[in-house]
Amino acid sequence: MLTAYINNQEIQVPEGTTILQAASQHGIRIPTLCYLENLQAIGACRVCMVEVEGARNLLASCVTEVKDGMNIKTNTRRVREARRSVVELMLSAHDGDCQTCERNDDCELQELARELGIRELTFTGEKRVKIEDNSTPALSRDTGKCISCQRCIAVCNQIQGVDALAPQDRGFTTVIGPAFCSTLDSVACVQCGQCAAVCPVGAISEKDHVDDVWDALDDPDKHVVVQTAPAIRAALGECFGEDPGSLVTGKMVAALRRLGFDRVFDTNFTADLTIVEEGNELLTRLKQTLTGDGQAVLPQFTSCCPGWIKYMEYFYPDMLENLSTCKSPQQMFGAVAKTYYAEQTGVNPENLYVVSIMPCTAKKFECEREEMTDSGYKDVDAVLTTRELGRMMQQAGIEFDTLPEERQDSPLGNSSGAADIFANTGGVMEAALRTAYEVVTGRELPFDDLRVEPIESLDGVKAASVSITDPVEEWSFLDGATLNIAVAHGLENANKVIQQVKNGEAEYHFVEVMTCPGGCIGGGGQPRFTDDKARQRRIDAIFKEDEQKEHRKSHENPEIVQIYQDFLSEPLGHKSHELLHTEYTEREVM
């Protein structure tokens, strides 16, 4: 441990701790516009400068390690004036109109300028190069608003390993974007939206679909239904000042009804449906492998995350057969709504408009995939992120905190606790195990309260094994078998698992991958700013929701039982294959 002093306060920190980290650990805030926890700091913004006794210049606290006996000042006049000058220079080059920017009142640059007491622009001059890029279904870019903090590069490279963004040119003419200043649709962007989630300003954001949804709601000929992803209920409250992890399921349903949706349903319903289909697909692959009855590809990778699917299409097309053929719960819902629900209610599917509320920007891309039309129509018509839904509620004048608790509509609104935990890293795997183990053995999963704790942490890669003993007669060939599972979140971590499989270093049977850190609760469309503390609070809330449910296993959801009796007949059957399954193809990389 090292002893140092910050603002005359004695502190002790481990060797290797930066000044920024040390200050944070001891309740001292140093502002920054480029730093991200758990990632290599680059000191790009220079806002976090501090004064260190004996140093000639001010030092960037995010990249300067504490030394024994160091005397640090974080708020001297010299420091305050330097920070103010840095922010004033950023503002002088920033081509952004706060009054019309969608990040107004949610902008870190604006907040810091207010904090530093900047009331007018001291410097005037040339603005940054402005390139507007709306080439993808999910994301919009405006380089004129960019402050070159390089956060987007950090998450794209270090968290996702995609490298779709990089600095182009040098100095004042630097542009952050795809190679050769091209558009996002020309490079291997998976449209996860993590860049938009960490951008401190309005340089990268989700493509706004709020007006499209308003148009549908205002059309008297349209029957508009909405589905809500499991992660939304633990984050939407943050748009209205509530703490991360505040469960707002009932108020969310009430707000959606007041916006004018004809039915408020739940993506959790088709999360349960996904588990039944995907679990049976896994068991079929295991049966083929162990009995020699046909060719099976293992490990089976989950297919719920569209960013992950696109990553595989770009970088590992030779392993596309390892992906589950199941559509994501979002797309399953659209297909079921425009067939089963339309038949049940007599609604003409031509007039049925399906809206998804998702924590994910890549879902905007997914609903536009040309293969997602197995219902005979576009399965999902529009996708709103959590942030967009928050803005839409504000536009409607909804006072969120005064709303009553209401329940989702039937028949597509009932779900199990297993569906709730789809929001968390490890959740899809845990939900699948709850059902698959019970199908095979006739007994509940042998973990305390159905919680598979080895795969629930925020570690990047987690692995576990489940032993099978005394299975029911149909699955007797699995007696004594060990099911090896892995969970990864963040595509760079997924790449590690893929390399383990390719190199023969690990033999997994089932692998869950989520693109975003923490899973969907840390999605690119969630309220900003998401750090591990916020992720963990949202995760805890989701497990609380799970524990409160009457049914905690997908196959026990009575409405899932009903849809198979009335419509689908059986898992992996003809109609299920037609509506709920798909395949993926290789994509070219520039």
**Approximate strand percentage:** 5-15%
Based on the coordinates given, report the CATH architecture of the largest domain: 3-Layer(aba) Sandwich
CATH class of the largest domain: Alpha Beta
Tally of discrete structural domains: 3
Q: Shape, please?
A: globular
Helix content: 25-40%
Would you write up a description of this structure?
The protein is α/β, with parallel strands linked by helices. A hairpin with a 6-residue loop joins strand 3 and strand 4. The chain has a five-stranded mixed beta sheet with strand order 2-1-5-3-4, with helices on both faces. Helix 8 packs across helix 10. It has three domains: 74 residues, Roll (Ubiquitin-like (UB roll)), CATH 3.10.20.740; 86 residues, 2-Layer Sandwich (Alpha-Beta Plaits), CATH 3.30.70.20; 382 residues, Rossmann fold. The radius of gyration is 25 Å and the shape is globular.
Keywords:
about 600 residues; alpha/beta; Ubiquitin-like (UB roll); Alpha-Beta Plaits; five-stranded mixed beta sheet; four-stranded parallel beta sheet; 18 strands
SSE layout:
Layout: E1 2-6, E2 9-13, H1 19-25, E3 49-52, E4 59-60, E5 71-73, H2 77-93, H3 108-115, E6 132-133, E7 139-142, H4 151-159, E8 166-168, E9 175-177, H5 194-198, E10 204-206, H6 210-218, E11 223-228, H7 249-259, E12 263-266, H8 267-291, E13 300-301, H9 306-315, H10 329-345, E14 352-358, H11 362-366, E15 382-385, H12 386-395, H13 417-420, H14 427-441, E16 461-467, E17 482-489, H15 491-502, E18 510-514, H16 532-548, H17 558-568, H18 574-580
Parallel strand pairs: 1-5, 11-12, 11-14, 13-18, 14-15, 17-18
Antiparallel strand pairs: 1-2, 3-4, 3-5, 6-7, 7-10, 8-9, 16-17
